[in-house]
Amino acid sequence: MPLFRRKKKRNHLRELDLFKVVSGQLVLELVPELTTLQSYFEGNMIHLRGSLIGEPEVAVETIIKKCRARGYNAFVSEEPEYVHIKIARARKPKQSRIRVNIIFGVLTLLTVLWAGGMHAGVDILEQPGLWYVGLPFAGALLLILLAHELGHYFTARHYGIKATLPLFLPVPNPLIGTFGAVIKMKSPIPHRKALFDVGLSGPLAGLAVAIGVILIGLNLSEVITAGYPELTLNYGAPGAITILGESFLVNLPPLYKLLQLLVIGPLAADQVLMLHPVAFAGWLGLLVTALNLIPMGQLDGGHVIFASLRRAYKPLGTILFFGLLVLAWFWQGWLLWAALLFIFSKRRPAPLNDLTPLTGVRRFGGYFTLLVFFLCFTPVPIP
């Protein structure tokens, strides 16, 4: 059996002929729900433009069901003078390979344990018998990341969206040990409500766990007097961490400072909070939440803002993107993140029913998302 199979060459002319047949049949089938003004084929999709007949929400759901019955997905959106329906072949999702998730999960556990050991002052590569000293940091950080991804996963399953299990991303970095975790949605999002809920559920679940981790970590942390140069307090009451005995400053986002005031109280001008590894894991949890809530592309914030604050989606994303470029002057890490956003966030979320607006408190969810973003955001995380 060959190791690599040649990819079957697509017959575009045959696909075009088939789409023409399907397009003609669908136009006839959708007569009760749609007055078709224009139909054409572009980008391997059938495009129909027209006006809905009857109750819009009922008409949209009927159109989606009729197309699905023929093996197609219909993406319905509203344009200034008509409804635009994009019809594409519903492709069967590939079977997920659980082995990959398990392997990456084990590797991530090892790299995060190693990072946790470094925070505890032990290199477990040199002293493997002391591997357990990295457990507090590793357990706290992985619990936050797992809660975030499972929030997405179970909400997606609630709406009948097929999604993969979380895939953790290991990185041999003594500061964090992981690039986080991701899940992939393998079937279309049915409507804006589902898009909103799937986007927000992950950050809220991760944030809830992160707050609990921070409260525990702050009780394990200690306040010290900044008596040596590397902890010169020039950045507005930062915290500090140690890696193999070497100290580093970390700036605390507004939510973290609020929790610090509740647990420890205000600090004197010459004092600094030395973060326990668990407290630092909570700090990373807030940073991950802020990064995911940037309203761009396939990020969680992109899903939420697009579903709730439609007109604000593009300008907000553009403003924050260029804001990261400006902040990169003060912390170069933002330059890497801005580059990743530019590469991977060009596609915006697209539910099947993009016509029916949100109702109730979800209409204001975009403002709440921006509030959470700024509470968790640190302009210069590590000065």
Structure characterization notes:
With 383 residues, the protein is an alpha+beta fold. It is built from 11 helices and 10 strands. The protein has helices at residues 12-29, 56-69, 98-119, 135-158, 192-220, 254-263, 277-292, 300-308, 313-327, 333-344, 365-376, and strands spanning 34-42, 45-52, 72-79, 82-89, 167-170, 178-182, 222-225, 239-243, 246-250, 271-274. Strand 3 (72-79) and strand 4 (82-89) form a beta hairpin. Helix 5 (192-220) runs antiparallel to helix 7 (277-292), helix 5 (192-220) packs across helix 8 and helix 8 (300-308) runs antiparallel to helix 11 (365-376). The radius of gyration is 25 Å and the shape is elongated.
Quick structural gist:
Strand 8 (239-243) and strand 9 (246-250) form a beta hairpin. This protein has helices at 12-29, 56-69, 98-119, 135-158, 192-220, 254-263, 277-292, 300-308, 313-327, 333-344, 365-376; strands spanning 34-42, 45-52, 72-79, 82-89, 167-170, 178-182, 222-225, 239-243, 246-250, 271-274. By secondary structure, it is α+β, with helices and mostly antiparallel strands.
Q: What's the total count of β strands?
A: 10
Secondary-structure content class: alpha+beta
Q: Which strand order does the major sheet show? A: 1-2-4-3
Fraction of residues in β-strands: 15-25%
Main sheet specs:
4 strands, antiparallel
Counted up, domains total 2
Helix content percent band: 40-55%
What best-fitting shape do the alpha-carbon axes yield?
elongated
Measured distance between first and last alpha carbons: 55 Å
What is the mean predicted local confidence, pLDDT?
Answer: 85
- Indicate the low-confidence ranges by residue numbers: 1-5, 229-235
Q: How large is the count of helical segments?
A: 11
